[in-house]
């Protein structure tokens, strides 16, 4: 197919899973797409830049989507580990903080 400028473009461009690099086909209704926007620390408003994560339905069925999102956000520097002094630790779980970003999700469907 050609666009108005005469360039050849694809009719369908499939997405890839951010965790497993699998192609997400059109019938994978269990897949999710998360967009984490950068936030200006002075004003608290979202800027134009953002980071998108796509998780396929197979990862979600295995129950690994939360681990994959945490791993990917740590790798990109969005989620940083907050280490408290030894006297103030409340438990064995680590505390993670979002680094000046806001999480936005796209909701589609009737009734949203």
UniProtKB/TrEMBL annotation:
<dbReference type="Pfam" id="PF01249">
    <property type="entry name" value="Ribosomal_S21e"/>
</dbReference>
<keyword id="KW-0256">Endoplasmic reticulum</keyword>
<protein>
    <recommendedName>
        <fullName>Small ribosomal subunit protein eS21</fullName>
    </recommendedName>
</protein>
<dbReference type="InterPro" id="IPR018279">
    <property type="entry name" value="Ribosomal_eS21_CS"/>
</dbReference>
<dbReference type="InterPro" id="IPR001931">
    <property type="entry name" value="Ribosomal_eS21"/>
</dbReference>
<keyword id="KW-0963">Cytoplasm</keyword>
<dbReference type="GO" id="GO:0022626">
    <property type="term" value="C:cytosolic ribosome"/>
</dbReference>
<dbReference type="GO" id="GO:1990904">
    <property type="term" value="C:ribonucleoprotein complex"/>
</dbReference>
<keyword id="KW-0687">Ribonucleoprotein</keyword>
<dbReference type="GO" id="GO:0005791">
    <property type="term" value="C:rough endoplasmic reticulum"/>
</dbReference>
<dbReference type="GO" id="GO:0003735">
    <property type="term" value="F:structural constituent of ribosome"/>
</dbReference>
<dbReference type="InterPro" id="IPR038579">
    <property type="entry name" value="Ribosomal_eS21_sf"/>
</dbReference>
<dbReference type="GO" id="GO:0006412">
    <property type="term" value="P:translation"/>
</dbReference>
<comment type="similarity">
    <text>Belongs to the eukaryotic ribosomal protein eS21 family.</text>
</comment>
<keyword id="KW-0689">Ribosomal protein</keyword>
